[in-house]
Amino acid sequence: MLSRVLYVGLVAGVVAGLLTAVVQHFTTTPLIIAAEAYEGTTGDDATTSSFMPSPAGPLHGLVLTGAADAMHTSKTFGGAVIRVHTDEDGEAWAPADGFERTAWTSIATIVMTTGYALMLVSLVMLTDGSMTWRSGVAWGAAGFVATGLAPALGLSPELPGTAAAGIVDRQIWWLVTVIASGLGLWAVLRIATPVAIVVGILLLAVPHVVGAPHAAELTNSVPAELAATFSSTVLGVMAISWALIGGIAGYLWERDDARLASAAT
Q1: Which residues are bridge partners to 82 per DSSP?
Q2: Looking at beta carbons, which pairs linking 8-11 to residues 24 or more positions away fall under 8 Å?
Q3: Which residue has the higher pLDDT, 86 or 132?
Q4: Bridge-partner residues for 54, per DSSP?
Q5: Engineered SS bond to 63: which of 32, 49, 96, 127, CB 3.0-4.6 Å?
Q6: Maximal CA-CA distance, the chain
Q7: Which residues contact 147 (CB under 8 A, 6 or more apart)?
Q8: Are 52 and 169 in contact (CB under 8 A)?
């Protein structure tokens, strides 16, 4: 069973990641590059190196900072924060614009979608034990709500040059929101008793009642129209990615079920 989970999760994650990377290239990436023209030269913690989930969820819109922006922070592009590493001599590294930048961005996207696919398949195995492509899409929709839509209600996907609170505070709020939203959806949709529905709604609401962390001063260098377009586009790409993850995983699982049933007869 473990080998089956790994096979379905890895294949679904890689294929969904490749397709998502293509969608990103023509949707969110041009918006990020346009925003970089407005970004200042003093990004927060620009000389540190980190890679972590962002308040916006999966890696939908991530673009690694180009060589010309080597000392900048490439902020939360709908899924991760990747900061340029600077060594002791002050020499910064960043992927060169063009193929190298696209390749590293795509790799990061595939890694993240693969992780989500493995989690989705594992959760399905522990609960339903089986799925079809239709139920897989439904699971993907729940994943999108928990990791993308719910957090975006408090912290929208951010372009470079956008004012934001400290990264640690945002990461903590994002993680708490994802966990609370996931448990809330489970209580409402799976347990579905009157008490569970009330508890689920409370879990969905609590992170937003507490409130997401925001910058003390909203001093953005990015035009509002560009930021708004980016936020809505990221959510659209995230929805497509989760649908791909769930649909492909469900199709592979369903096909494997048919193969096993045929072998047993």
Answers
A1: 51, 74
A2: 8/117, 8/121, 8/249, 8/252, 8/253, 8/256, 9/114, 9/117, 9/118, 9/119, 9/120, 9/121, 9/122, 9/249, 10/114, 10/117, 10/118, 11/248, 11/252
A3: 132
A4: 57
A5: 32
A6: 68
A7: 57, 58, 116, 178, 181, 238, 242
A8: no
Whether the Cβ atoms of residue 247 and residue 3 lie closer than 8 Å to each other: no
What one-character-per-residue DSSP string does 10-43 give?
HHHHHHHHHHHHHHHHHTHHHHHHHHHTT--S--
At 238, which amino acid appears?
Answer: M
Share of the chain above pLDDT 70, in %: 78
**Residue 248 backbone phi and psi in degrees, to 5:** -65, -45
CA 224 to chain centroid, in Å, comes to 22
pTM of the model: 0.81
Average of per-residue pLDDT across 226-242: 94
Distance (Å) of CA 19 to CA 26, 58, 77: 11, 14, 17
pLDDT of residue 73: 36
- CA 185, 188, 189, 193 dihedral sign is positive
Count other Cβ atoms within 10 Å, centred on residue 6. 13
The token pair at 71 is 């000392």
pLDDT digit string (tens) for 168-216? Answer: 899 999 999 999 999 999 999 999 999 999 999 999 999 999 999 988 7
